[in-house]
Design brief:
Immunoglobulin-like; 1 helix; about 625 residues; about 0% helix
Length: about 625
């Protein structure tokens, strides 16, 4: 049986290097100039085969390329910094090396100890108790959890005066003159250590060269608000102040302090929001579209779901049943662990008031009939949406809102639509798959668009259907999964791009690297990766014309399809007569039997609930 991590690694070796935040470790009040690399966390304890995601910061005026390469002395590490410990116990290293300057690197230490050998946390110390930073500059604080071999090395960072200095993962940024206390707190035991940070003016004036915004376009409803973030270059410019303006305040207004502006829709139309630097008068703009009326959605039932290696279906009594891989507790019945599978369907709790269910690579979400949203399973990138990174073995409510209409899960990110048509997203965002123009992970829902009737999340790409029936795609595009006629390692899109010109799309679903969609005439279409026959075209392969399709291709000639759902490497679809059809990869019994992969749809049974339209 193939390990899914090995399969994922083989499919992602061609990815572009991860975009990471700039960081350095200077102690001089003047801004750093050379390239520096900083890895976080720096000390980790894992059980054999355990995993840990590392991040790297690259900074310095010479760092024209902020990418890094990852290596490990034992175990494996992906280009995204996901490390898997070896079976043998011992002490290993994980190293990030700057692409811009290969002589610059930083290393984390990993202690692999036998499973169950928990070492409790007794305290935490910082490498500095005081720090002086020049205005607009930054410096790194290193936290050491005590003892050094403590099992839980997790910490959180806070600033008592974020208006003076902010902190992210130990990297301290100077915002305004003054003094702030930076505190690190251990996840276990809540032990703390504090550093007093003093922010002083620059000794030498550095002029502003340019300013940019985190997005070029924005959509709003009247009364709705979203934020714009301005970035002043160079990062060590003396004056980072920005003023905000709207050319049509009757359409959209903007108010902001510093580099963040809040845009609010007033009435239907278009407006241009401009950010202007206080020094040098440099400008950047964002085009804002305000829709005159909101899209009103009702709950959209999804009665079947396919994850990376697990499946779910809703019975006629309203209960949800699940089966397949359960490594990350994605089955949702309170069990789970590495190597565990569930070969036959089991109920997800006793509740019978579910309205829809969806599954990602290792997590699952469901909406109840009252509009509340629930999630469980793998949460390392924040895909569960609860604001933390804790594994969830049972359904846990996401926030307190009761106006969720539809949700979609992926490898590491989640998309959801509220009843007013607003699109929200959270989780992994390395390839821009959240669609907000940024590449930072988000552990809680953030609004990314409006006027959306359907939005689906693939492993690292996303699709959406707008109110006019048009289809849009963004994110990773190595296998043509965006459906825009292009593919390859440099074909990614971090903002939505329209798929064709038709306006008759009614349903869509994303797998890891493939998609299924329905048109208004009931026809079924597929595109993207086809290594295991997951497109249902009767062919498969890892090279040549059968390996992938970079534009939608029709599956068969039937016009009675009513629902589709992509798993990681397999597909499900429902016909109007209640018959369920499955095809693609069958390594973990996704077909419901012990058979081999299937390249054409085959009937799995009848009597399944048909969603209302």
């Amino acid at each position: 049986m193939k390990n899914p991590f090995v399969r994922l690694a083989s499919a992602t070796l061609a990815l572009a290097f991860a975009l990471v935040l700039a960081a350095c470790n200077g102690s001089n009040p003047s801004p750093p100039q050379g390239v520096a690399v900083s890895v976080s966390p720096r000390i980790v304890t894992l059980a054999p085969g355990g995993t840990q995601t590392f991040t790297a910061k690259v900074t310095g005026s010479a760092a024209s390329n902020s990418g890094v390469t990852w290596t490990a002395s034992g175990g494996t590490v992906t280009m995204g910094g996901v490390y898997t410990a070896p079976a043998a116990t011992g002490v290993y290293t994980v190293t990030a090396t700057s692409v811009a300057d290969t002589s610059k690197n930083d290393t984390a230490t990993v202690t692999v100890s036998p499973a169950g050998g928990n070492v409790p946390v007794t305290g935490v110390v910082l490498d500095k108790t005081t720090m002086t930073i020049a205005l607009g500059g930054g410096n790194r604080l290193a936290a050491s959890v005590q003892p050094s071999n403590a099992t839980n090395q997790g910490v959180t960072w806070t600033s008592d005066k974020p208006g003076v200095a902010t902190v992210t993962g130990g990297w301290v940024e100077a915002v305004a003159n003054g003094t702030a206390n930076i505190t690190v707190t251990t996840s276990e035991g809540s032990f703390t250590a504090t550093c007093a940070v003093t922010v002083v003016p620059f000794i030498d004036s550095v002029p502003v060269a340019s300013v940019s915004l985190d997005r070029a376009t924005m959509e709003l409803f009247p009364g709705g608000s979203r934020t714009l973030t301005a970035t002043v270059q160079p990062t060590n410019a003396t004056n980072h102040n920005v003023t905000w303006s709207s050319d049509k305040p009757g359409v959209a207004t903007v108010a902001g302090t510093g580099t963040v502006g809040t845009v609010t829709g007033v009435a239907g139309g278009t407006a241009t929001i401009t950010a202007t630097t206080a020094s040098g008068g440099k400008t950047a703009t964002c085009a804002v579209i305000v829709y005159a009326g909101q899209v009103t959605l009702t709950l959209a039932p999804a009665t079947i779901a396919a994850g990376g290696y697990h499946s779910l279906a809703q019975k006629t009594d309203g209960g949800i049943w699940a089966w397949g891989m359960n490594w990350w507790s994605q089955i949702g019945n309170g069990t789970g662990g590495q190597g565990q599978t569930q070969p036959s369907p089991v109920p997800v709790g006793a509740d019978k008031d579910w309205a829809s269910v969806v599954a990602g690579w290792g997590h699952t979400l469901a909406i109840k009939s009252n509009g509340s949203l629930w999630a469980w399973g793998n949460n390392i990138s924040g895909a569960v949406g609860t604001g933390d990174a804790e594994l969830q073995k049972n359904p846990l409510r996401v926030g307190v809102d009761n106006d969720w209409a539809a949700v979609s899960a992926s490898g590491g990110h989640t998309l959801a639509i509220k009843t007013n048509g607003a699109l929200w997203a959270w989780g992994h965002n390395e390839y821009g798959q959240l669609g907000d123009g940024a590449r930072a992970n988000r552990r809680a829902p953030v609004q990314v668009s409006v006027a959306v009737t359907a939005a689906l999340a693939g492993y690292s790409h996303s699709l959406a259907i707008k109110a006019d029936g048009s289809l849009w795609a963004w994110g990773y595009n190595l296998f043509g999964q965006l459906g825009i006629g292009t593919s390859g390692p440099n074909a990614d899109k971090n903002t939505p791009v329209r798929v064709g010109t038709e306006n008759n799309w009614v349903a869509v679903s994303c797998g890891n690297y493939h998609n299924l969609a329905l048109k208004a005439d009931g026809s079924l279409w597929a595109w993207g990766m086809n290594w295991y026959g997951q497109l249902g075209l009767g062919t498969s392969g890892t090279s040549g014309a059968d390996a992938y399709k970079n534009a939608p291709v029709r599956v068969g000639t039937a016009n009675d399809w009513v629902a589709v759902m992509c798993g990681g490497w397999h597909s499900l679809a429902l016909k109007a007569d209640g018959s369920l059809w499955i095809w693609g990869n069958n390594e973990y019994n996704q077909m419901g039997d012990d058979g081999s992969d299937r390249a054409v749809p085959f009937q799995f049974g009848t009597g399944y609930r048909v969603p209302a339209r």
